[in-house]
Design a protein that fits this description.
The protein is an alpha+beta fold. It is built from four helices and seven strands, in the order βααββββαββα. A four-stranded antiparallel sheet has the order 1-2-3-4. A three-stranded antiparallel sheet has the order 5-6-7. It is elongated, with a radius of gyration of 20 Å.
Length: 153
């Protein structure tokens, strides 16, 4: 997550700690697979190259669009007082939790995430039985969670 001065804060005492987006790393294996299949189709046969490449090109294009949508449609902002999750480009859904209300944080790391340094976190409050905000596939999440825990006391 990176610091971004463009996010609005509610009070003069509130400071932005971090602003982040999901990483593209979870989709890299699909890019490699579909890209490899496109290249393999090029060398497979001269007569049916387009016919063999087209499905893999479509899959590659869909994967790239999916990656870009996931990254740019999800924004996570951590301030000294709140955690804000903004999801969506056309229809926007914003969830917000005051740090004082945080009662539990569950961090999840996949094998791929452990190798490449990204994780997900679910954050809950006493107001609900489940988790209210899910921060998915963000790099540097361990440092952010430590900061949240320090701020909430």
């Amino acid at each position: 997550m990176q610091h971004d001065a463009d996010e609005s804060v509610e009070s003069a005492d509130e400071e932005i700690i971090a602003v982040g987006h999901p990483t593209m790393l979870p989709e890299v294996p699909f890019l490699v697979l579909f890209g490899g299949l496109v290249v393999a189709s090029l060398f497979a046969g001269k007569g049916m190259v387009l016919g063999m490449m087209l499905p893999w090109l479509v899959a590659l294009l869909i994967t790239v669009i999916w990656m870009l949508w996931r990254v740019y449609s999800h924004t996570y902002t951590i301030t000294t007082e709140r955690i804000i999750a903004k999801c969506g480009l056309l229809n926007v859904d914003i969830s917000e939790i005051r740090l004082a209300d945080v009662r539990g944080i569950h961090v999840s790391k996949t094998l791929w995430g452990r190798i490449f340094g990204y994780a997900s976190a679910s954050i809950g409050t006493a107001a609900t039985q489940g988790m209210e905000i899910v921060i998915a596939n963000v790099t540097g999440l361990d440092a952010i969670i430590r900061e949240i825990n320090e701020l909430r006391g």
